[in-house]
């Protein structure tokens, strides 16, 4: 089975900061990696699919990269509405979510 | 408008059963992959089950043999029949649409969630 890790598990940042979240898988998944944002009490929303494709309607400050086993989500300039938990998801095999990264206000 | 609305969550005793529904609008549940994803209190997301556009179904190991996913095409509704419920099935259950008839493009439409609590 594919194992997934995310780092860090949480981070504190300020508005305007550049934020990078890493997702690693235990075996190669090509580019079958998606990123979601979830705010408290709300359903997740899709940010990035296929490792680097920006979902329609998502601000361009979000970007994704990587292939194989190492992936990153970058927020180029953190905005107040970006404070949330971020999950990666591999879909190379039966879907599996990473453990999440909580981004809160410094 | 493309939308998913879940219902059916409730408080149920261990060993009991429950059926969740997910009513879709703006698209057909037979066109896309449709999944159930759950989130236990204070925990992360866990994929539970999928039904492919062709009708094949797959399950997470944690629910295999106890949960059954199905759909009613004319009602445009997705279901999750949950039997032999356990305390660790307690969660908010979301239905979600895959953006195409495959997982690569991610899950782009989610319902608001319905809460299942398994407790005596």
Explain what this protein looks like in three dimensions.
The complex is a heterodimer of chains A (106) and B (120). With 106 residues, chain A is mostly beta strands. Helices cover 0% and strands 50% of the residues of chain A. Chain A is built from no helices and eleven strands. In chain A, the strands form two sheets. In chain A, strands 2, 4, 5, 6, 9, 10 and 11 form a seven-stranded mixed sheet that branches. In chain A, strands 1-3-8-7 form a four-stranded antiparallel sheet, with no helix packed on it. In chain A, β4 and β5 (45-49) form a beta hairpin. The N and C termini of chain A lie far apart (36 Å). The mean pLDDT of chain A is 97. Chain B has strands spanning 3-7, 11-12, 18-25, 34-39, 45-51, 57-59, 67-72, 77-82, 91-100, 102-110, 114-118. In chain B, the strands form two sheets. In chain B, strands 2, 4, 5, 6, 9, 10 and 11 form a seven-stranded mixed sheet that branches. Chain B has a four-stranded antiparallel sheet with strand order 1-3-8-7, with no helix packed on it. At the A-B interface, β4, β5 and β10 of A face β5, β9 and β10 of B.
């Amino acid at each position: 089975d594919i194992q997934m890790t995310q780092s860090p598990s949480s981070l504190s940042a300020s508005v305007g900061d550049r934020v990078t979240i890493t997702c690693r898988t235990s075996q190669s998944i090509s580019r079958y990696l998606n990123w979601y944002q979830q705010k408290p009490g709300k359903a997740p929303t899709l940010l990035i699919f296929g490792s680097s494709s920006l979902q329609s309607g998502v601000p361009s400050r979000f970007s994704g990269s990587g292939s194989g086993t190492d992936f990153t989500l970058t927020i180029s300039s953190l905005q107040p509405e970006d404070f949330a938990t971020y999950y990666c998801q591999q879909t190379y095999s039966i879907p599996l979510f990473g453990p999440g990264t909580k981004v809160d206000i410094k | 408008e493309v939308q998913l609305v879940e219902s059916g969550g409730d408080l149920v005793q261990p060993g009991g059963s429950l059926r969740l529904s997910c009513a879709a609008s703006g698209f057909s549940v037979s066109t896309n992959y449709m999944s159930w994803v759950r989130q236990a209190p204070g925990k992360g997301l866990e994929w539970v089950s999928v039904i492919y556009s062709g009708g094949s179904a797959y399950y997470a190991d944690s629910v295999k043999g106890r949960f059954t996913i199905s759909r009613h095409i004319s009602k445009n509704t997705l279901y999750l029949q949950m039997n032999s419920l356990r305390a660790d099935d307690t969660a908010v259950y979301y239905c979600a649409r895959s953006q195409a008839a495959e997982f690569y493009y991610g899950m782009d439409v989610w319902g608001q969630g319905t809460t299942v609590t398994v407790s005596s």
